[in-house]
């Protein structure tokens, strides 16, 4: 039969849905929403009824998303750990601006985003004061003065969002929307975002994620049972919070991610079984006899007469007795048998799992090895075809009953099943307060690192150098968890964390210890963990969000002729006066789309000049001196592109043109900034 031709409309629809899931409502294209995403929303477009999440300020939030930033990231090489080889990054700054700055560098490169945003409880929660548009006066005010309410505007610091505020939920949603859109951009096609949230915004966040990621990309909603109800509850005492999971492309995510976790007690069970198995066929006095001897003072010859060999049956009895005393439940508890080889196993039905009848090949009876008679076949057939059953028989993984009347079962070894599917309910009631105190830190309500480590391991692959992003880094739990995961399973994951420099209370213990911001605490914790695990952690690079090292044309600041002249004078040179070369280098690297962990080779030329080249030799940068010796060195190195500061040519357009032609002859790109 001939195949049908491509349905062009359906193909375009599918591609658009994959690229912009938010442009669809109830599986139909929403032209108004698409216009809003593209920044082409008109007032008349807002009319009409349709199913959507809406709130006061949503249009302004989309404008925030579309507003470009002129800031950049500057490296803090001196305070970083092993800068040259580090694969991990912590950025200090407003996460909205930082996410915009790193879009080109990290677009489609992050495997997992794990965030714990402000919960919007209404008592002490805060939102980011995103700037939807500013006048010149507002811009100058933000550089260092307080607003009318007394809140600092510099560096995008938090401001309170009280319940008495008429736009309590709206403000929180407006804060989250642009960040989630930018977060989706940096995810791999097979990546996913994992978001902690409590009861205050769980419903709204679900609808918002449906809009940003598409409802069809919802992976699930996990419940974290902390085992400790809130003591200040006015109604139902919540002892859980939700963890929402959305994939960028659910199908690709599930095909690339196992979504499993290690069985919590499996290693202890295997260890205990090995200890008991060593006693097989050894003579010893049963435990209950030893207890009676001790309690009633029986003669020692009683012990001698009661000595007997440990049989496999006795070992299994002891193993089951031990299991009942352990905090082992569910799937782990089913592994309650030890076989002749000392392997811990469980028995599982081999019946066909579906309601529909299996193919005929799945109804071939199994012959009992002793009676040589056929065993009962499950009503809907076996789970496996005859070829698979033969392989299981050859490996000794099918267990028969005493005779042919018992239906055979499949044998599952615990050592081959140390992981289990990630469940929807996660139990963990621990706290990391003591851990942080040992590090000399205090932090309000830190997430437990062991719990977060289990999430990191479930949503990443240890051998893939997966990047884990957390743009609400807080106490640094996600960074710590990534390092702990690598320590445990030998993985090569790396983290990228972002934290706002939110001011600490001057009366707090951490302030008294010379910490000034939460970002300081984050940085200190990560460095402390690295110091304790130097054998598995390459290091970390620190960056800060800062104004561009290059002059930016600001037409919004021009209100008169004097303002225009001032702007023109700025552009006598592109770079700002006294801008450090390393800062300019990294700004240009970021604009080229390089990762923040890019390896840079520094080349000296005749002790008079320096240029920098990316490790893959794609781009070279000249930022201090350009002369014939530098040009010849670059021609010899043959990078794909050379980028120079325009001021290095001293307005000699002829020299610049000749240099450009020379590079072109050698098939090397050339541009100036």
TrEMBL record:
Keywords: Coiled coil, Methyltransferase, S-adenosyl-L-methionine, Transferase. Residues 256-283 form a coiled coil. It comes from the Bacteria. Its EC number is 2.1.1.72. Belongs to the N(4)/N(6)-methyltransferase family. This is site-specific DNA-methyltransferase (adenine-specific). It holds the Pfam family N6_N4_Mtase. SUPFAM superfamilies: S-adenosyl-L-methionine-dependent methyltransferases (SSF53335). InterPro entries: DNA_methylase_N4/N6 (IPR002941), DNA_methylase_N6_adenine_CS (IPR002052), N4/N6-MTase_EcoPI_Mod-like (IPR002295), SAM-dependent_MTases_sf (IPR029063). PROSITE patterns: N6_MTASE. It catalyses: a 2'-deoxyadenosine in DNA + S-adenosyl-L-methionine = an N(6)-methyl-2'-deoxyadenosine in DNA + S-adenosyl-L-homocysteine + H(+). Gene3D superfamilies: Vaccinia Virus protein VP39. It is an enzyme of class 2 (transferase). Residues 110-488 form the DNA methylase N-4/N-6 domain. It comes from Chitinophaga nivalis.
């Amino acid at each position: 039969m001939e195949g049908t031709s491509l349905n062009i409309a359906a193909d375009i629809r599918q591609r658009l849905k994959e690229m912009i899931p938010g442009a669809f409502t109830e599986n139909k294209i929403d032209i108004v929403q698409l216009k809003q995403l593209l920044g082409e929303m008109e007032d008349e477009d807002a009319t009409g009824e349709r199913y959507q999440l809406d709130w006061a300020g949503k249009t302004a939030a989309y404008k925030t998303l579309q507003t470009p930033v002129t800031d950049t990231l500057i490296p803090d090489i001196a305070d970083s750990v092993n800068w040259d080889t580090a694969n991990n990054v912590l950025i200090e700054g407003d996460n909205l601006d930082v996410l915009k700055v790193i879009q080109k560098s990290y677009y489609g490169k992050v495997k997992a985003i794990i965030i714990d945003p402000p919960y919007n409880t209404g008592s002490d929660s805060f939102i980011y004061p995103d700037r939807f548009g500013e006048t010149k006066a507002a811009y100058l005010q933000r550089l260092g003065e307080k607003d009318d309410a007394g809140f600092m505007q510099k560096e995008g610091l938090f401001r309170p969002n009280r319940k008495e505020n008429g736009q309590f939920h709206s403000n929180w949603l407006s804060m989250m929307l642009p960040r989630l859109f930018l977060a989706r951009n940096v995810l791999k096609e097979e990546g996913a975002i994992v978001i902690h949230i409590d009861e205050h915004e769980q419903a709204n966040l679900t609808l918002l994620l449906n809009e940003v990621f598409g409802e069809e990309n919802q992976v699930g909603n996990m419940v974290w049972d902390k085992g400790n109800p809130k003591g200040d509850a006015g109604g139902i005492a919540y002892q859980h919070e939700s963890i929402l999971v959305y994939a960028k492309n659910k199908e690709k995510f599930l095909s690339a991610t196992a979504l499993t976790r290690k069985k919590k007690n499996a290693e202890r069970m295997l260890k205990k079984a090995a200890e008991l198995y060593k006693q097989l066929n050894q003579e010893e006095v049963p435990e209950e006899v030893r207890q009676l001897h001790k309690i009633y003072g029986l003669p020692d010859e009683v012990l001698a007469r009661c000595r007997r060999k440990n049989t496999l049956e006795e070992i299994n009895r002891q193993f089951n007795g031990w299991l009942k005393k352990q905090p082992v439940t569910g799937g782990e508890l089913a592994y309650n048998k030890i076989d002749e080889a000392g392997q811990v196993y469980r028995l599982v039905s081999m019946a066909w799992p579906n309601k529909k009848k299996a193919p005929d090949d799945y109804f071939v009876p199994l012959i009992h090895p002793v009676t040589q008679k056929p065993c009962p076949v499950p009503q809907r057939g076996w789970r496996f075809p005859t070829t698979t059953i033969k392989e299981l028989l050859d490996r000794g993984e099918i267990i028969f009953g005493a005779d042919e009347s018992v239906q055979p079962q499949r044998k599952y070894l615990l050592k081959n099943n140390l992981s289990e599917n990630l469940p929807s309910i996660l139990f963990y009631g621990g706290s990391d307060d003591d851990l942080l105190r040992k590090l000399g830190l205090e932090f309000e309500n830190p997430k437990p690192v062991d719990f977060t480590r289990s999430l990191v391991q479930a949503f990443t692959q240890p051998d893939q150098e997966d990047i884990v992003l957390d743009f609400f880094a807080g106490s640094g739990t996600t960074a710590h968890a990534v390092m702990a995961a690598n320590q445990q399973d030998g993985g090569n994951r790396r983290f990228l964390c972002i934290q706002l420099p939110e001011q600490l209370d001057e009366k707090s213990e951490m302030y008294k210890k010379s910490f000034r911001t939460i970002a300081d605490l984050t940085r200190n914790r990560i460095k402390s963990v690295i110091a304790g695990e130097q054998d598995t952690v390459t290091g970390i690079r620190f960056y800060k969000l800062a104004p561009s090292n290059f002059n930016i044309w600001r037409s919004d600041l021009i209100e008169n002729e004097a303002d225009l002249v001032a702007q023109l004078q700025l552009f006598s040179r592109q770079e700002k006066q006294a801008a450090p070369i390393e800062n300019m280098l990294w700004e240009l690297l970021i604009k080229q789309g390089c990762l923040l962990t890019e390896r840079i080779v520094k080349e000296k030329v005749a002790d008079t000049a320096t240029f920098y080249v990316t490790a893959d030799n794609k781009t070279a940068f000249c930022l201090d001196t350009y002369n014939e010796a530098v040009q010849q060195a670059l021609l010899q190195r043959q990078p794909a592109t050379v980028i120079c500061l325009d001021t290095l040519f001293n307005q000699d357009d002829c020299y610049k043109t000749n240099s450009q032609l020379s590079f072109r002859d050698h098939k090397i790109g050339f541009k100036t900034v």
